[in-house]
Design goal:
Number of strands: 0
Helix content: over 70%
Distance between the termini: 31 Å
Strand content: under 5%
Radius of gyration: 20 Å
Structural class: mainly alpha
Mean pLDDT: 92
Oligomer: single chain
Number of helices: 7
């Protein structure tokens, strides 16, 4: 890895970091949407949340509650993407807080996404199968951050 990182420039690494992390964001958003937009899972969660008296949960009420759940999920996933786009712009502009945030993010998300990907080994859909390679990309970025530490811009 050291040989690879020694052959690229810091600016190229920044661009690779932004591309790889943006890809991860899109994959995570797709994974969360796929998981939580499933009506069957929603019904199971309702049964767990209201184990006793469910007579007030008629089909129309459950459908409306599910739609509210989907709208909330859209808003949260949109805010997640905006938050990360902001950090990628700041990282490209060499802001220290963005560098620190991304460094923490890739070292936490890398192993977590790899473990999630391994849990779907041999089963699952395309999105779930892409989790493992994305986790490896996060670790690649993390190792690159060790090779390219933060350097303040010189005026």
């Amino acid at each position: 890895m050291k040989i690879f990182f020694s052959r690229i420039k810091a600016k190229t690494f920044k661009i690779l970091t932004i591309v790889f992390c943006s890809t991860g964001d899109l994959l995570i958003v797709a994974y969360l949407w796929d998981l939580f937009s499933d009506y069957g899972l929603f019904e199971k969660a309702l049964k767990l949340g209201f184990p006793g008296h469910r007579e007030f949960l008629d089909e129309e009420f459950k459908r409306q509650l599910f739609l509210v759940n989907l709208k909330s999920l859209k808003i949260l996933l949109g805010l997640y993407l905006i938050f990360h786009i902001f950090h990628y712009i700041c990282f490209y502009l060499n802001k220290k807080f963005a560098y620190i945030y991304l460094k923490i993010m890739v070292w936490v998300a890398g192993p977590g996404i790899i473990l999630a990907g391994l849990s779907y080994a041999g089963k699952g859909n395309l999105i779930q199968h892409l989790l493992l390679p994305q986790g490896l990309l996060y670790l690649f970025v993390g190792m690159g951050m060790l090779y390219f530490p933060y350097k303040p811009k010189e005026n």
